[in-house]
User: Which sequence fits this backbone?
């Protein structure tokens, strides 16, 4: 089948390689522009390496007005199917509807739960014990189209955002996309309408949003830290310095004030939460400098009894 692949990053590149292995013809690759002087995007580089048409529009449309030149370059590839793998741009409807087989997309949740681009974060933030991947037919809504296939996976009690994506959602997503394209090619791909009664939508989890509220119960703080690990990174302030906390587990220490450091050792830093229970973090970071929690504490004169600052009231 002739496929236009729209996406980016290692996931997009892995889908590209799998579809090529499956015998499909990638007729065009569409990624956002790369930063000048930065590392090549893996999907864009895969297209270059194989001499496949590569188009990198800054945007497909602006204020509802479609960039006809970009669309013309896309239409010239004449695909049978669009495959969307890690797409952050808004793709015009005329592109989504152009191929005879239309467009399918990967989403890292069991839709209709956790629609939106921060689905993995929110599954962990909310304490879910299961998530998964969905391949769906794209329509004009945000993750609202009919479901083609879904594959579940577990979220462990200490699993972080990075863990669940790397160990499950990335490889599972590549396999699911391969299977979905085969079903489309065989004329056997279903279209199951999503049940809106089960729908949740959460906004982007990014920027400075992930400031820790130590007055919350320990389980809530634990889920908050691991659901933000490593992006955008759960953070707090101590002695006027902003610190990102990584690698949270529950601790059996109890008693003390919210935000108080109860212990520092080789296994990490134990911090009291609002219910008197505690969490332990193994790693701290200031900017991009990551180091074991006990090393950071020693280097910065942080001792047991020091207190992380309370988050300001809304």
Assistant:
């Amino acid at each position: 089948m002739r496929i236009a692949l729209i996406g980016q990053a290692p996931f997009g590149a892995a889908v590209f390689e799998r579809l090529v292995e499956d015998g499909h013809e990638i007729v065009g690759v569409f990624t956002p522009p790369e930063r000048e002087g930065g590392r090549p995007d893996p999907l864009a580089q895969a297209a270059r390496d194989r001499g496949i048409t590569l188009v990198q529009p800054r945007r497909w449309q602006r204020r509802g007005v479609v960039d006809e030149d970009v669309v013309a370059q896309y239409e010239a590839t004449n695909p049978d199917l669009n495959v969307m793998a890690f797409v952050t741009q808004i793709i015009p409807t005329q592109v989504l509807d152009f191929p005879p087989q239309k467009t399918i997309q990967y989403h890292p949740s069991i839709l209709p739960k956790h629609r939106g681009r921060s689905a993995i974060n929110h599954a962990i933030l909310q304490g879910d014990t299961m998530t998964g991947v969905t391949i769906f037919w794209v329509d004009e809504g945000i993750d609202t189209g009919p479901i083609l296939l879904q594959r579940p996976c577990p979220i462990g009690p200490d699993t972080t955002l990075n863990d669940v994506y790397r160990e499950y959602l990335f490889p599972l997503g590549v396999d699911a996309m391969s299977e979905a394209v085969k079903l489309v090619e065989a004329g056997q791909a279903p279209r199951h309408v999503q049940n809106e009664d089960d729908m949740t939508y959460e906004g982007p989890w990014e920027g400075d949003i992930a400031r820790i509220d130590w007055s919350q119960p320990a389980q809530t703080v634990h889920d908050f830290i691991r659901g933000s690990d490593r992006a955008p990174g759960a953070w707090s302030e101590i002695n006027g310095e902003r610190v990102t906390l990584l690698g949270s587990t529950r601790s059996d220490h109890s008693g003390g004030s919210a935000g108080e450091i109860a212990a520092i050792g080789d296994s990490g830093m134990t911090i009291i939460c609002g219910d008197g229970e505690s969490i332990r973090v193994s790693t701290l970071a200031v900017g991009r400098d990551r180091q074991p929690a006990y090393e950071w504490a020693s280097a910065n004169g942080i001792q047991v009894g020091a207190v992380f600052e309370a988050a300001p009231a809304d």
